[in-house]
Amino acid sequence: xxQGSGRVIENPCGDCxxxxxxxxxxxxxxxxxxxxxxxxxxxxxxxxxxxGPGATTGDLYVFVGVRPHAVLQRDGADxxxxxxxxxxxxxxxxxxxxxxxxxxxxxxxxxxGAQSGQQFRLRGKGMPVLRSRAHGDLYVQIEVEVxxxxxxxxxxxxxxxxxxxxxxxxxxxxxxxARNTKxx
Length: 184
Fold this sequence. Notes:
With about 180 residues, the chain is an alpha+beta fold. It has helices at about 85-90, 150-165, 170-184, and strands spanning about 40-45, 60-65, 75, 80-85, 95-100, 105-110, 120, 140-145.
């Protein structure tokens, strides 16, 4: 009858039915610091379940779940982004707008002759570092997209371009062919 407490309450109140505590639901505001990672645990002292009669209230732990971004991948405070660029931009060089977490964009200058897989580092454009004013870096890796579905005029222009280039325009191809002929 006493549930192990050593005493029986003769006239229990209607709210707690003799347990000495009632259940109440509340909404709490949690301050989430910038830079938290997925799975970070935030402790709200004294906001947990009540202890037994006369005991202190426990703590509430909130586990943060960070939703993945559509374009940016996170590794600690650093962000990574794969950006497809047009063939002509890689060949001639030019400016590229790269997305940031805050919805803004930052200009990245692509040098002429940029290659697929080349990576660029934008210092301080990554995630905020937890409990710090510092930011991680944003690494942008470009993937050169070769045009497809060329019409006859485009094909003729590409043929003229091919005629105007030589092996000095393709050093990696030339090096590969030189190694390949030596190994045979």
